[in-house]
Amino acid sequence: MSFSFPESFLWGGATAANQIEGSHKKDGKGLSTSDVQPFGAFGELVYREEGDFNIKDVAIDFYNRYEEDIALFAEMGFTCLRVSIAWSRIFPNGNDSEPNEMGLAYYDRVFDEMAKHNITPVVTISHYEMPLNLADKYQGWASREVIGFFENYAKVLFKRYKDKVKLWLTFNEINVTLHEPFTGSGLPRDCSEQTRFQAIHHQLVGSAKAVKACHDIIPDAKIGNMILGAIQYPLTCKPEDVMHTLTQNREWLMFGDIQARGYYPSYMTRKFKELGVELNITEDDTESLKETIDFISFSYYMSGCASTDPGEAEKASGNMLNIIANPYLEASEWGWQIDPVGLRYLLNFLYDRYQLPLFIVENGLGAKDQLDENGEVIDDYRIQYLNDHLYQVGEAVQDGVPVMGYTSWGPIDLVSASTAQMSKRYGFIYVDRDDKGNGSLERKRKKSFHWYKSVISSRGQALQGPKQ
């Protein structure tokens, strides 16, 4: 690749507390909604007895091994690392009067370790979990009271880490409540559309209040949203398919529209009317939503298609989505369609819409990596996937899109969010642990580790263009 990424471009990886930390009750941590999802985001909720197995109780033990792992990230040349803070480490019940000092001190140590290696923290305030007590007692974000609990939590983080963290995200994939209400908002899975959208509204208000608090408490920080970038194409050029695709894409764009513009888009008026939804929106809500984000961040794993008449069209499922497969694309072992050009398209699409800096904070390939006879992981398939996507990011930068950085999902093997598996591996670093919790937790560099290091050190010039 003759093009070099800008010197300011941030290179790194992305993680989530409930998928890497373990130590699920250590140092005063309370139970979270993730702790009752031992089979992943779509699995049965299990309010366990002491001693019942949940692979996330240990995960990859990042809580105790963060120094080793951060050193490995630094060896690859990371200039940033996306992590999340476990809300129930700071407020074990969510509505506690005072924060848990041991939880706050833990993240101090993590950020200090990152600073030693000149790695910029990118911190998600809430990543697919909230204190379980808030889900049990308040029905999660269905309750307006949770807005205040979240605002207080965010303010505690900003005051504590204002000198250590300058890049923040509010909610991970905030649009996921449309597909998995318990994971996204702590709601019962059989909730009504009225409850779902009222909870989404409360969450959007909570996000906006956190944005204002960040701007007030850390004036030199930047805070963004995080959406699941679920771009869909028309299955055909039939006008009805094109119109239907616009409607389907608006389901997730609604979140970005509100967070970037500060008000509900007009197309939602008809949507709510058709669903029979009447939101309770106060004057304070309307005023709060006006505090808009500084940048757009998003995940991108796959694209899909939409049609008013899918007929026998094959379905494609992935990242909590169920959409029509694109006949021109191949898919991963888990059925997630692979579309590198779609990332360039999405970057241009979002910049055209919002005119804000963009940050790709999740992208990666889950695969069943195997150790070869030499005990190595030769993951050429992952290298190809990431190479092709990063090449298209470079193309988007040359298109004039201001891309802040790229954090691959799971730079070290971690517990899958959707299936709670270790065997669905994303990392540049292999972790010796299986789906049943067996293994030494030893870390081992994969072939992709050395490849990503060369990409970062060359500022993208090591990337290969598409095969002709």
TrEMBL record:
Keyword Iron included in the entry's annotation: no
Keyword Transcription regulation recorded: no
SUPFAM superfamilies (UniProt xref): (Trans)glycosidases (SSF51445)
Stored InterPro entries: GH, GH_1_N_CS, Glyco_hydro_1, Glyco_hydro_1_AS
Coiled coil region boundaries: none
Pfam families cross-referenced by the UniProt entry: Glyco_hydro_1 (PF00232)
Catalytic residues of the enzyme: E362 (nucleophile)
Keywords: Glycosidase, Hydrolase
PANTHER family attached to this UniProt entry: 6-PHOSPHO-BETA-GLUCOSIDASE ASCB-RELATED, GLYCOSYL HYDROLASE
Similarity annotation: Belongs to the glycosyl hydrolase 1 family.
Protein name, UniProt field: 6-phospho-beta-glucosidase
Species per Swiss-Prot/TrEMBL record: Vibrio diazotrophicus
